[in-house]
Amino acid sequence: MQLFYNPKLDNSASQFVFTPEESHHIVKVLRKKEGDKVLITNGKGYIFDAEIITADTKKCKAQIIATTKKHRKMYWFHLVVAPTKSNDRFEWFLEKATEIGVDEITPIICERSERKIVKPERMEKVLQSAMKQSMQAYLPKLNPVTTYEEFIAQDREGLLFIAHCDEDEKMELKRRVAPDKDVTILIGPEGDFSRNEIDKAYKKGFLPISLGQNRLRTETAAIVACTTVNLINNG
Length: 235
Fold this sequence. Notes:
Layout: E1 3-5, E2 15-17, H1 20-29, E3 37-41, E4 46-54, E5 61-69, E6 77-81, H2 87-100, E7 104-109, H3 120-133, E8 141-142, E9 146-147, H4 148-152, E10 159-163, E11 171-172, H5 173-176, E12 183-187, H6 195-203, E13 207-210, H7 218-234
Parallel strand pairs: 1-3, 6-7, 6-12, 7-8, 7-9, 10-12, 10-13, 11-13
Antiparallel strand pairs: 2-5, 3-4, 4-5
Helix pairs in contact: 2-3, 2-7
């Protein structure tokens, strides 16, 4: 069953009207009719079971017949990632990280960043699509793009890690992550973090980690980190 998204829907709703775009998709593409069931989420933990009562291509209406609250997992996972030069690769990362499981994403501009302009509206749509495709009840929080200096100046709680390619002593991420512990991981641009950025992270309590023996692209490193955190907590 396909999952639809509307952030304004709450657990007091009894009926729901889809947007014209969604109505056309439901009736014309999915060929849904009166009496058929659909699922809707507000991205805040609620899944609504609904039954179509008006199969109109411009104003499809559904009756809410059941509401389920999905509880969040015990930890919060925050990925801080420098946007890649290729916008397609960064969108691929957003999609896969959402499917695997991430709670918060912050695009960060570093000294060596090749891309310094991003489109938050487009990124939000990618996250929404991935959430619906993977049948999840929570939409990851997408923060505004920020500079490294602005981000690192803020105090953070939980496990703090930075992945970089300098020859510092590092421990594998899988040996650093602990189950049910909040975690923030910094992933740099294609040219890596500068030495200055690495040192500033250390001063703020970030520990260096290794994501394996091979040098990885930014988006690959982010997905490896995401997968590792997920496996440690759900393996």
